[in-house]
Amino acid sequence: MCGITGIINFNKQKYAEELLWRMADTMVHRGPDGGGIFSDSGIGLGHRRLSILDLSEEGKQPFIQNDLSITFNGEIYNFQEIKSQLGNFNYRSETDTEVILNAYRKKGIDCINDFNGMFAFCLFDKTKQKVYLVRDRMGIKPLYYAHINNEIIFGSEVKAILASGKVKSDFSNSAISNYLSFRYPVGTQSLFKNIYQLEPAHYLEIDLTTKGIKKTQYWDVPIIDQKEDFGEDYYINRIQETLSESVRYRMIADVDFGAYLSGGLDSSIVVSLMSKMHSRRIKTFTIGFEEKDYNEFEYSKMVADMYNTQHNTILLDPSKYFDTSDMLIGYKDAPLSVPNEPALYLMSKALKEHFTVVLSGEGADELFGGYGRIFRSPYDFERYGDIHKYGINNNISKMFTQSFEEKYGSFDSNITNHFLKLYKYISLKDKRSFMSPDFIDSTANDKPLFEYFDHQFAKSSTLSFSEQYMWIFEKIHIQGLLNRLDMTTMAASVEGRVPFVDHKLIELAFSIPLKYKMKWKSESHKLYSSHLTSDLISEVYDTPKYILKKAYEKQLPKEVVWRRKMGFPVPLHKWFGDSFNDYAKEVLLDNKAKSRNLYNTNELERLLNDKSNFKEHSFGLKIWMLVNLELWMNKYFN
């Protein structure tokens, strides 16, 4: 696990060592165990190393093997199997990095289809005068790049690109609007103009001879519209087999490892599997707040006791939360996207004293229908559409119509609009209240955002609406969660691994019929819910993640398996409505913030002064996002 960076040019220029070191050393936190650079005609590579496999000097990067050079961030979990299949190659190390180069020698860039892991790398083939920038299937490892004139500058973090001095630091209003809607920029955007994300499961092929740049997608989340039903027991067995293999792979390391244990289903499953596979006691960590209902210590302790883990509990106080938030923005090069990022970082920092690799439970909700109130909402859309189409007029339809309109407003027959009403964190209406008219005009009233999601719905149109929601969440929503995990762990020089984001498990999950993921408790429960909307149905009349819960109900306390989803709540509305109200004003209403012409300052001041607004958690979250945005502005654009 590392930080990678470099510059590629079509003029066959050779880069100075000082420049490459300057770029690489912006990411010392990602690789405190060492660093290296490589320079040749047309390319310069930089690397910071966090030693996980082959701790010797032979594992140093950039790794040079005759005419091939690579700077690599990540892990290829099945590298030993690939190594045995490749045949007679001489190896000077025990690293997966060297296996990548030999796999490339044998198969070319198509070798990436054999890799099971999380990775971002730059591979230079001097003989062919080609450079490949590659990112893993799900985008677990970040990779940013800029194409300025005849140069391509890349890095694991934006700060490495900015350190080159070749890219002007300027913010993108379009990407900021993305952030306000979805907590992170979607698609190829970053928050900086002219700096882009390489999308998951893509690679750039850069030809130094022809000066050509070609982008290729090598994998995608599967779209399986006709699913053969093999029965509940079959899927339970397949989930258990595939997830066990995924966890086993992610326990491969030459350093000690542990796990986050939130007390929720997903991390508890991971801990149970780790405990069965490892002879030593697993070390587990959980974090929460003193406020009632803002921690899950009771449930994490149940699992820790059941599997006799070395369990650690961390309490977080609000003052430390905000100090940590400001610092983390400098690591992320972006506003924070999820309120629990400071907590995850502090937990990562604490566990770094014990081990370097941590397993986490991200990704299960997207695969198995865990966001019940959202994934069940197409049922609302379809019922209202039928009432509208067929003119159904009875007491149940009247009650449901009233409930629907109270929740969604007027009916819109476009599924994309229905989806975005639920999925947006800050609506266009709220943006018009919070942000300046000039900002709203510059974003074309969010039309590009609608078009982006409309394209995703068109691409997956053969699926049912609920399955489309899950497919879009697996492709798009999970990016914010994976970016959160990468940043909060790497800022503490820890490697985070995610068993539920194994591509084999993803391919299996998207072959499972919907009825096994979001299962009605009975036909009577479905009938009883006829007049209700999804937020009142989910986890009352149905069971989200049913098949995953059934697969592990015997391995975990029933209170953990069958309780309602909690997430990781942070009492933002209480803080901003009380002791941190002045802090929000100090950040959002000062002269620097006013001078940006981004915010509707007068309206923000009125909203912050009205303490009744802070009764709702959703309002506290919106203020938190705006505070984060301005803290980011202060770091990068003053």
Helical fraction equals 40-55%
Low-confidence runs: none
Q: Give me the side-by-side strand order of the main sheet.
A: 2-3-1-9-8-10
Broad CATH class of the largest domain: Alpha Beta
Any idea what the CATH architecture of the largest domain is?
Answer: 4-Layer Sandwich
- What would the average pLDDT be, to the nearest integer? 93
User: Which fold name fills CATH's third level, the topology of the largest domain?
Assistant: Glutamine Phosphoribosylpyrophosphate, subunit 1, domain 1
Q: How many beta strands in the DSSP annotation? A: 19
Q: What profile does the largest beta sheet have?
A: 6 strands, antiparallel
Number of domains: 3
Per CATH, the superfamily of the largest domain is Aminohydrolase, N-terminal nucleophile (Ntn) domain
End-to-end separation: 33 Å
Q: Please state the overall shape, judged from the principal axes of the Cα atoms.
A: globular
Class by SSE composition: alpha+beta
Strand content: 15-25%
How many separate helices?
29
Radius of gyration: 25 Å
